[in-house]
Design a protein that fits this description.
By secondary structure, the protein is of the alpha+beta class. It has three domains: about 180 residues, Cupredoxins -  blue copper proteins (Immunoglobulin-like, Sandwich); about 160 residues, Sandwich (Immunoglobulin-like), CATH 2.60.40.420; about 200 residues, Cupredoxins -  blue copper proteins (Immunoglobulin-like), CATH 2.60.40.420. The protein contains ten helices and 36 strands. The strands form eight sheets. Strands 9, 10, 12, 14, 15, 16 and 18 form a seven-stranded mixed beta sheet that branches. A six-stranded mixed beta sheet has the order 24-21-29-34-31-32, with no helix packed on it. A six-stranded mixed beta sheet has the order 26-28-36-35-30-33. The two termini are about 35 Å apart. This is L-ascorbate oxidase. Belongs to the multicopper oxidase family. Keywords: Glycoprotein.
């Protein structure tokens, strides 16, 4: 019976140890009063989850309220084994998408990323955190225990959370996990493939770690437009500060911007701290994500070409590059063939568009290497905007390749759909009340006392107002506001990001992918639409906007919920360059949006409400 969950079929692999821990752990949901740990009836589980896809997990949660000692006291050790058998049997018989279980303990720990001791945020003792391995449509049950001394949340960069913004893991949708407590995320990677990452979303936790890779592989029945690689490597790269995350937060709270970073890390380590082993003549996949705070990066490998195959869930035309610009929050996937003489080679990542260039290296080591790295690391582009712009324009969608479904990616004709709305978003850097802030269309976001999604669900007045951020730049003075933009479900929006500043911007939209139809220097005008690529541009979730430039995207508003639209420059996001997009359906149907989960954490003005 176990084979139907953990057999040779990669769709069915499961972390069985985490599964058992999930069933046995007496504090899956935190209760201070142990006397209140009561068994929950199956009917209540059905009420809590209200969806067949989550029923099995609900039953598992039911059992978790009974500790191992409770079973001993009842003199019935067989109950849990019988229960697990039922869960496995039902899962196999129902033919539902596989479940993967994770149990994560978030702690502080000593790390030495730049050679000096720092306090980092670890997940199960790891920095970076554990990699999530999944397959299209998998259900992921991730139980997060907060062993820090401050509230904590994890968000999933690029995971669309179809119909389920309840699991998005940002403060606008979720109450923080308080110290000593836990929360179980229930995700489904519905109709997605690709390379992504997760990260801690509150405050400046991201500056201390807590991030990790997130891979969604294609189902075995879906053709992939390249042969299986000999290996699959994840590279989490980003700028890094030696200062503690609380010190960085204090700098921002004091009204200043962050200083220049101290270095760049590859998988949590400084120069030559990480080695990738390859066999000569074989081809390997590298998934590279920029998980940093403030800086665009350039990626290259000494003596080797990069064959681009995927960008944030889109299979691309397979163009070859010497190096790739990867902006904040972005993820790319390349194939690299070990076709050079057998020795060690530098993998190089350096900062882009900075006066001072920070560089770090890792080692690409051939298994039959005859020697160490020869020569200095290859140089890369530094401040050249036009070079980066032309590379960005060269990214194209592979129209004949399948995505997460069998049909070709080109079967969705995004350029033939009439847009229902144009939204222009302009970033600025105002001083408000004597402090540095950042704004979108003159509105600098401030968090409410209650997550916006909860306030919306419970109809709590006075937390936010839909329409509290305009669709266009106002040119007026900037002000503080809990900004929420209203949007209609099944609309089709043209979104234009306008950047009048001298720095590169990087924008991310939760819950959606969008088609990058155009980007150029100068001001956007309606005539700019004549330059749009309406045939084969890529679909992604994070896009750059160059200095004094604009970027336009087409976005289907096909996911009901409360979604964060933010700068991926974490200082700018923290100081207000974000807002929430409320995609609303009047149908109030489970077909459009899942109901509030029974384990939803409540805080602020939502305390005491019934879920």
């Amino acid at each position: 019976m176990m084979s139907c969950l953990s057999g040779t079929d990669p769709r069915a692999r499961i972390n069985e140890r985490a599964f058992f821990l999930l069933l046995l752990h007496r504090r899956l949901f935190f209760h201070k009063d142990k006397a209140k740990k009561k068994r929950i009836k199956e009917s209540e589980i059905v009420r809590l989850y209200r969806d067949k896809a989550f029923l099995i997990i609900g039953l598992a949660i039911r059992e978790s309220f009974v500790s191992v000692s409770d079973y001993t006291e009842m003199g019935d050790h067989r109950n849990i084994w019988s229960f697990m058998g039922v869960v496995l049997l039902v899962t196999c018989i129902s033919g539902e998408d596989p479940y993967r279980f994770y149990s994560w303990n978030v702690t502080y720990g000593d790390i030495y990323p730049l050679g000096e001791k720092q306090q980092g945020i670890l997940i199960n003792g790891q920095f970076p955190g554990p990699q999530i391995e999944s397959v299209t449509n998998d259900n992921l049950i991730i139980n997060v225990f907060n062993s820090l001394d401050e509230p904590f949340l994890i968000s999933w960069n690029g995971v669309q959370q179809r119909r389920n913004s309840w699991q998005d893991g940002v403060y606008g949708t979720n109450c923080p996990i308080l110290p000593g407590q836990n929360f179980t995320y229930v995700l489904q990677v519905k109709d997605q493939i690709g390379s992504y990452f997760y990260f801690p979303s509150l405050g400046m936790h991201k500056a201390a770690g807590g991030f990790g890779g997130f891979k969604i592989a294609s189902r075995s029945v879906i053709p992939v437009p390249f042969p299986p690689p000999a290996g699959d490597f994840t590279i989490l790269a980003g700028d890094w500060f030696k200062r503690n995350h609380t010190d960085l937060r204090a700098i921002l709270d004091g009204g200043s911007d962050l200083p220049f970073p101290d270095g760049v890390l590859i998988n949590g380590r400084g120069s030559n701290g990480y080695t990738f082993a390859v066999d000569q003549g074989k081809t390997y996949r590298f998934r590279i994500s920029n998980v940093g705070l403030t800086t665009s990066l350039n990626f290259r490998i000494q003596g080797h070409k990069l064959l681009l195959v995927e960008v944030e869930g889109t299979h691309t035309l397979q163009n070859t590059y010497d190096s790739l610009d990867i902006h904040l929050g972005q993820s790319y996937s390349v194939l690299v063939t070990a076709d050079q003489p057998a020795q060690d080679y530098n993998i190089v990542i350096s900062t882009r568009f900075t006066t001072q260039v920070l560089t770090t290296t890792s080692i690409l080591r051939y298994s039959n290497s005859a020697g160490s790295v020869s020569g200095p690391p290859p140089g890369g582009p530094t401040t050249q905007i036009d070079w980066s712009l032309e590379q960005a324009r060269s990214l194209r969608r592979n129209l004949s390749a399948s995505g997460p479904r069998p049909n070709p990616q080109g079967s969705y004709h995004y350029g033939l759909i009439n847009t229902t709305r144009t939204i222009r978003l302009q970033n600025t850097a105002p001083i408000i009340n004597g402090k540095q802030r950042y704004a979108v269309n003159s509105v600098s976001f401030i968090p409410a006392d209650t997550p916006l999604k909860l306030a919306d669900h419970f109809n709590i007045q006075g937390v936010f107002s839909p329409g509290s951020i305009p669709d266009n730049p106002t040119g007026g003075g900037a002000y503080l506001q809990t900004s929420v933009m209203a949007a209609d479900f099944r609309g089709y929006a043209e979104v234009v990001f306008e950047n009048p500043e001298d720095t590169v911007q990087s924008w991310h939209i939760d819950g959606h992918n969008f088609f990058v139809v155009g980007m150029d220097g100068g001001e956007w005008t309606p005539a700019s639409r004549l330059t749009y690529n309406l045939r084969d541009t890529i679909s992604r979730c994070t896009v750059q906007v160059y200095p004094k430039s604009w970027t336009a995207v087409y976005m289907p508003l096909d996911n009901v919920g409360m979604w964060n639209v933010r700068s991926e420059n974490w200082a700018r996001q923290y100081l207000g360059q974000q807002f929430y997009l409320r995609v609303f359906s009047p149908a109030n149907s489970w077909r459009d949006e899942y109901p509030i989960p029974g384990n939803a954490l409540l805080c602020g003005r939502a305390v005491g409400r019934m879920t």
